[in-house]
Design goal:
alpha/beta; eleven-stranded mixed β-sheet; single chain
Length: 341
């Protein structure tokens, strides 16, 4: 069996991994099929999931990955127009594309690993063909089942009984998350967290998104749902509004606040231009920023510790690694050069 076949074969690869780990010291055994990255000794693997999806998995260094600990697998759906190396990020250099500096998910992950020491934190970046999840979904009528199979192919790299999955996305990457939610009769319990970072454009009452999310939230105290957005209604590029009269994440977020608030008790807290709505013992978290100067904060929300917040809200680790919309806390973890897939 080839490695590619194992990657799509469910429990097969997980069993191989357990066997490999059992034959070596648990502190030094490497992950099967992964290679050592030149940055921070991380373990990485890239593959193509057909049709036209690039997957890049980043795991802690072999010496830091402890198979005796649970694994937290974070799947990050890329924003429109961005590549995986740009999303991972790197240090600034002359003539280097600005997209490398606006998310820094790689550095934020490393900062999180300093705090989340009771788990193996793994991030899988997923880039749709054409660098657009909405366009990819529109191209494939069976996109829902394909997205579910994609998630299964990533999960197959780790033992199912000790691995939970967090679905996260920025911008157009939210289309992947909604595609997953749409195809499921109910959101699986092994999904422990779903977070939209200015990415909830596709929220719809018609598609029963609220019903599914609320049912999933109430099934387990280990389930977390979050949204981070800002007032994008009046922002402009070259003198033209970016979103239409009914579009944008601000409007969708307001709809979510109204709907969730009707079904679940929410506590509202305001601090200047920042509003927060919390429910379900802090496991439901909606963060919304007003924008009186009409600045474009679409990527700023991510750059300013947005990914860190996404994985820590509602837990004792919240704000330990970095505060949402505060000064970035991960500068020491930015790699010098772009990742090579």
């Amino acid at each position: 069996m080839s490695l590619r076949q194992c990657a799509c074969g469910g429990a097969g690869l997980a069993a191989v991994m357990v066997l490999v780990a059992g034959c070596a010291s648990p502190r030094t055994a490497g992950l099967f099929g992964f290679v050592r990255s030149p940055y921070f000794d991380e373990q990485v693997k890239s593959y193509t999931f057909e049709p036209e999806v690039t997957v890049h998995i980043n795991a802690p260094a072999a010496a830091a990955f402890d198979p005796r600990k649970p694994t937290r697998l974070v799947i990050f759906a890329l924003p429109n127009g961005n590549t995986i190396p740009q999303t991972i990020g790197c240090q600034k250099a002359a003539d280097r594309d600005w997209h490398f500096y606006i998310q820094h998910i790689g550095a934020q992950t490393r900062r999180l690993r300093e705090v989340l020491t009771d788990t193996n934190l793994v991030v899988a970046y997923v880039e749709a063909g054409g660098k657009s999840w909405p366009a990819w979904r529109g191209k494939h009528e069976d996109s829902g089942p394909r997205i579910a199979a994609l998630v299964d192919s990533i999960r197959a790299h780790f033992p199912a009984d000790t691995t939970t999955v967090a679905l996260t996305a920025h911008s157009g990457g939210g289309a992947m998350l909604f595609g997953f939610i749409n195809q499921a009769e109910q959101i699986p319990d092994w999904i422990e967290r779903i977070v939209f970072l200015d990415a909830n454009y596709g929220y719809s009452e018609k598609d029963a998104h609220a019903e599914k999310l609320e049912a999933w939230l109430q099934r387990s105290p280990q389930h977390y749902f979050g949204v981070v957005a800002y007032d994008d209604r009046e922002i402009q590029v070259d003198g033209k509004k970016v979103v239409g009269p009914n579009g944008g994440t601000y409007r969708r977020t307001q709809e979510m606040i109204t709907r969730f608030g009707a079904d679940l008790p929410l506590t509202e807290k305001k601090a200047g231009e920042h509003g927060s709505w919390r429910g379900s013992d802090g496991r439901l978290d909606i963060e919304l920023f007003e924008n009186p100067e009409n600045k474009i904060l679409h990527t700023v929300l991510v750059e300013k510790n947005g990914f860190i917040h996404a994985l820590t809200f509602g837990t004792p680790h919240e704000d330990q690694a970095g505060e949402l919309f505060g000064p970035p806390t991960y500068e020491n973890w930015i790699q010098p050069e772009p990742a090579a897939l």
